[in-house]
Amino acid sequence: MAEITASDAVMRTTDGVPLKVSLRRAMRRNRMKAVLLVAPLFLFILFSFIIPIVQMSWRSVDNPELQESMPRTLELLAAWDGQALPAEDVFMVFAEEVKIGRENKTIGRVGARLNREVSGSRSLMNKTARKVTKLKEGPYQEAFIKIDKRWGTVEL
To answer: Rounded to an integer, what distance in angstroms lies between the CA atom of residue 101 and that of residue 95?
Structure first.
């Protein structure tokens, strides 16, 4: 009888491939099958639930109405401290952009967007847009407060 050496002690399959290698291949095949079975469900969940939720979350914080209709006003308000009423130049630029918004018929969307934050803003914007067209020159801050006293509050 022949002696068994350490190299001969490796178990082999019937085709001569080491058993470890054969087991690894079989496990890899099983994992791929599992991934291929789960992939359609994962894609369904991704496209039906995850992507729409992310899109709705993004839309909830995105304000394209204001950025498109009142870019200069928002730029000036970014530098505002929020403690007292904004300066006269903010009201002047706001008046110009409200006039443009009324002409373009976009002031309603701006009012609707602001109404989500402060109740009553849509009607206030429409009222202001009608009366601002008559303003020719400043002081704009006083004119806005004369149109509606809510323009004199810091919250709005």
So the answer is: 10
